[in-house]
Design brief:
Largest sheet: 2 strands, parallel
CATH topology: Endonuclease III, domain 1
Number of strands: 2
Strand order of the largest sheet: 1-2
Strand content: under 5%
Distance between the termini: 28 Å
Helix content: 55-70%
Radius of gyration: 17 Å
Oligomer: single chain
CATH architecture: Orthogonal Bundle
Number of domains: 1
CATH class: Mainly Alpha
CATH superfamily: Hypothetical protein, domain 2
Structural class: mainly alpha
């Protein structure tokens, strides 16, 4: 039987996310924007609550096409607030539109959002070596620095804890426990990419 991080064992949504996505380095802006919106929506809630609504979020948010979300009107915000398939929190929904606009400004400045975000780790994922869940930090100096910079650029719902979760989600850090089967798989992928053998 495959050994997994204990946090994912309570629900099939968690297991699928853990086995396929969590900790895998992301290098495309569309996926990064999706996670940015979802992490903001998750604030104060469980990640499982968001995962179960992920497809509903995709449909509600035009599949996270950032150029479209940046143009959402007050009427569109009202439409989202009436959608009972997503988290109907006005501050979070309004923040998602502001974040799309800030995302585009970053993209204009750096060429891509991924170039900007990966620069926080020097272009290379941080490979941790945790043996138990209680070793995992909720935030780090790096996530605090990221939070400060994102906030300065106009992003909302990007506190240090949310930023660290975002870093885990898009693979800036590999926080799988060392005895989890995904730990070695992701590290092998990272090494392969750095060696120039990525697909």
């Amino acid at each position: 039987m495959l050994k997994r991080c204990p946090w994912c064992l309570a629900d099939p949504h968690y297991i699928a996310y853990h086995d396929v996505e969590w900790g895998v380095p992301v290098y495309d802006d569309a996926t990064m924007f999706e996670f940015l919106v979802l992490e903001g929506a998750q604030a104060g809630l469980s990640w499982l609550t968001i995962l179960k609504r992920r497809q509903d979020y995709r449909e509600a948010y035009d599949f996270f096409k950032v150029d479209q979300v940046a143009l959402y009107s007050p009427d569109k915000v009202k439409e989202l607030l009436a959608n009972n398939k997503i988290i109907r929190n006005r501050r979070k929904i309004e923040a998602s539109v502001l974040n799309a606009q800030a995302f585009l400004r970053v993209r204009d400045e750096f060429g891509t959002f991924q170039d900007y975000i990966w620069d926080f780790v020097g272009g290379k994922p941080i490979i941790n070596a945790w043996h138990s869940l209680n070793q995992l930090p909720a935030q780090t100096d790096l996530s605090r620095r990221m939070s400060k910079d994102l906030s300065k650029r106009g992003f909302k719902f990007v506190g240090p804890v949310i930023c660290y979760s975002f870093m885990q989600a898009i693979g800036l850090v590999n926080d799988h426990l060392v005895d989890c089967f995904r730990y070695a798989e992701i590290n092998d992928r990272i090494i392969s990419r750095q060696s120039g053998n990525a697909e």
